[in-house]
Amino acid sequence: MKTCFVICPLSESDSDTRKRSDLLLRLVITPVLASKYNVVRADQLHDGPTLSASISRHILTVDLVVADLSDSNPNVFYELGKRHAWGGRTVHLTNNIRTLPFDLSHHRAIEYNMADPRSIDEASSQLTAAIIAVEQQPIQAPADLTPESIIALSGATLLLSVNDGRRDHYYLAENLAQRPCKSIFLMQRSSTLILGPEQGWPAEEAFYNALIAKIKQGTKLFHIVSLEGISRHLSRDTSAFPSAQNALDKLYRSDHGVGIKAGKNISYFKRVADEFTDVDLKPDRQARAFLVEFDDGEAEGILVVDLGGRQSSFRFRGPIVRTFLKSCLEFYDQSPMLQWSDLEKLPKLRVKKRGKAQ
């Protein structure tokens, strides 16, 4: 059931103000709403560390607010301001429309007189009609909300898009790779940086070029590959990697391992460990992930999953992505270094044997 929160003047239990608010709740608001809404008022709340925190939570989260503006009560105006600030569905009541302040006078308000039975019936009818009307209106924020502003305001992590298609994630990753960032985490079942773009995949070629350009600018790369995945890609009769040698020539060769120059530094590649090193590790089930850390510390990422023959990519941004990126970097630190001897053993990959670092 939906929830309606009632904002109204509340005073001592034996005061005229409290008696009027109780009558309004019992004779008008509850009868109109009870079939569709759970109606609650501040004095009925017991679900927060403080009453103020509980009131604020209800104001910001409930489906509907009914606000009684009688007596120009400052607490009511303060709470109503919170509701108006994000555009939540609201209906206004008052016992005297003429006393409404200027900033509220242009809002429609239902006038009532609890001493007049006809007024009570009329207020009930108008309240019913007003609720039907606001339920049909979409909630509209008072200002344009971008993903960045939503994250900044709420600390939320957003799912920005879901794309179905075996190549769409490369376009998403290309877009991310072109943005200013200080570090990139890339985990693939094979490796675009080792094999180069697959023939007939312009999306992967665009991603590869954007990634190489970003790395040359000095962006730190944390890359984990799957030797099993590279081997599978090379063994497919339907796959061809005509730029593999050019891709290999761009890599840095040393006794330490396979890497790529990132500005003046070297970003070394890691590989998924062998299964026997960790009983819980399944080399063929590792994530495909492309995560970037922007200059301001925010993070955005793309995760790719298969469901049968269908492939989907999920693009996220927000604090949880930063946390996941931290876990990814920890996994990178724990993973073994990719050696040139590992690549020399792969079928159909012609790795030039060189004795010195390049």
Radius of gyration over all CA atoms, rounded: 31 Å
Strand order of the largest sheet: 6-14-13-12-7-8-11-10-9
Number of spatially distinct domains: 2
Q: Return the structural class.
A: alpha/beta
Strand content: 15-25%
Please, what is the CATH homologous superfamily of the largest domain? Endonuclease Chain A
Oligomer description: single chain
The mean pLDDT is 90
Distance between the amino and carboxyl termini: 68 Å
Q: Topology as H/E string?
A: EHEHEHEHEHHEHEHHEHHEEEEEEHH
| Uncertain stretches | none
Q: How many β-strand runs?
A: 14
Q: What coarse outline follows from CA principal-axis ratios?
A: elongated
Structural write-up:
Helix 1 crosses helix 5, helix 2 (51-61) packs across helix 3 (74-86) and helix 7 packs parallel to helix 9. This protein has 358 residues and is of the alpha/beta class. The mean pLDDT is 90. It is elongated and about 95 Å long. The strands form two sheets. It has a nine-stranded mixed sheet with strand order 6-14-13-12-7-8-11-10-9, sandwiched between helices. It has a five-stranded parallel sheet with strand order 2-1-3-4-5, sandwiched between helices. It folds into two domains: 2-135, Rossmann fold (3-Layer(aba) Sandwich), CATH 3.40.50.450; 147-344, 2-Layer Sandwich (Endonuclease, Chain A), CATH 3.30.870. The protein starts with a strand and ends in a 14-residue tail after the last helix. It is built from 13 helices and 14 strands.
